[in-house]
Amino acid sequence: MILARYVAVRFLGAFLLALGGVVGIFLAVDFVDNSAGFTGPGWGPTVLLLYAYKAAVVVYQIAPAALLLGAAIATSTFRSTREYTAMRSVGLGPWRLAVPVLLTALLAGAALVVLHDLVGVEAAARAEEIAAVRFGRGGDLRRFLAAREPKRWFRGHDGRRIYRLRGNLPDGGFEHVTVLEIGPGFTLARRIDASRMRPDGDGWILEDVEDRTFAPDGSMRLETAPARRFAFDEPAGAFSIVPGRPTEMRWATLLRQIDVRRRLGQPVADFELERYNRLAYPLVGVPGALLAVALALRRNRRGHLATSLLESVGVSLLLWGAQGVTWALGLSGRVPPWTAAWAPNVLFLLAGLLAVRRAE
Question: CATH top-level class for 153-239?
Answer without folding.
Answer: mainly beta
